[in-house]
Amino acid sequence: xxxxxxxxxxxxxxxxxxxxxxxxxxxxxxxxxxxxxxxxxxxxxxxxxxxxxxxxxxxxxxxxxxxxxxxxxxxxxxxxxxxxxxxxxxxxxxxxxxxxxxxxxxxxxxxxxxxxxxxxxxxxxxxxxxxxxxxxxxxxxx
Amino acid sequence: xxxxxxxxxxxxxxxxxxxxxxxxxxxxxxxxxxxxxxxxxxxxxxxxxxxxxxxxxxxxxxxxxxxxxxxxxxxxxxxxxxxxxxxxxxxxxxxxxxxxxxxxxxxxxxxxxxxxxxxxxxxxxxxxxxxxxxxxxxxxxxxxxxxxxxxxxxxxxxxxxxxxxxxxxxxxxxxxxxxxxxxxxxxxxxxxxxxxxxxxxxxxxxxxxxxxxxxxxxxxxxxxxxxxxxxxxxxxxxxxxxxxxxxxxxxxxxxxxxxxxxxxxxxxxxxxxxxxxxxxxxxxxxxxxxxxxxxxxxxxxxxxxxxx
Lengths: 142, 308
Fold this sequence. Notes:
Chain A is mainly beta. In chain A, 8% of the residues lie in helices and 39% in strands.
């Protein structure tokens, strides 16, 4: 089986549903960074059957706000001295700015570059957000 | 709390007490107009109407002129720099140097809110797409207050295009904040009120809402019948418009079982949803309503400018 060494310091994003790893990789802009990163795909998992994993070496301060939108079941492990020092569960962000578009075609945020779409979470189960400009609901789809 | 410098984008921007303050002065402005002739001397109102309007625009202009102020603006975006592709923010950043207060109507929902982020002077939402029309709501509330005495424990039917009709969106959001209000939403299936508004008023204010397609179902029950036009410009195709436009026409015969003191309101313009024969009925108050709109806008602008 393919093996990748553990990291001494950094972040491991685990339990990513198979197939979502690449999306997260792109969302976090990891293809453009200058520190070592690894994307593992289709790793056998007891819980998920198959899963993706991302390992990021050295870098600790990454904005994970968006990850909840891609896969709310992933876990984030912060590693220091080869030990997990913190485990984080991602959540759907309560406020989102500029990450997705409003579903309402008449909304100003779809028609003016200065109107950056801004949303507030109103329903966790349905991943439903309310637009700050037009008040209409947008259901976020991964 | 002073209203000076505030924007009015959504009716929820103001408290009910602030509405009352505006209504009290509006009532006095109607009774004693001579007291206010110089109130806005030296003040300039900019009317930025990116969409056609008769009532709202003229009502704002009349309101400012009755207080001694001046007006400038456009009523057709094709005659302004907007046609050259100027962004809303650039237009506002320039206009707030030319005027003391701005009223904006725009087809894009949320455009006045966007403007308020860039403006140094108060922005009033004069209607944004199918979203909100807060000054029509002020007009409607003043009408109810003047003709019913107060705003509470009323059964209100909102009828017609409830999907795209911004006046009813603002009105139900605001009336729900008053005590003991309940609503009948009368519309064809295709033009029902958006769920984001129904969910909002139910969750926030626990109001009772009944939806029906038949105007006759509610006629003998309601204290206020609020009619709206089925607006051609809100449809994406002509066929749907033609199919639905005559759904709800109010005639003398239809109101014969209505309460004696029911108010028939309409934000105007009407097309054919209220038959002309209804105009003579004492319950038809839509022309009075349009007149109150001037006084309430006078009071609103005077408060936002801080001259009262």
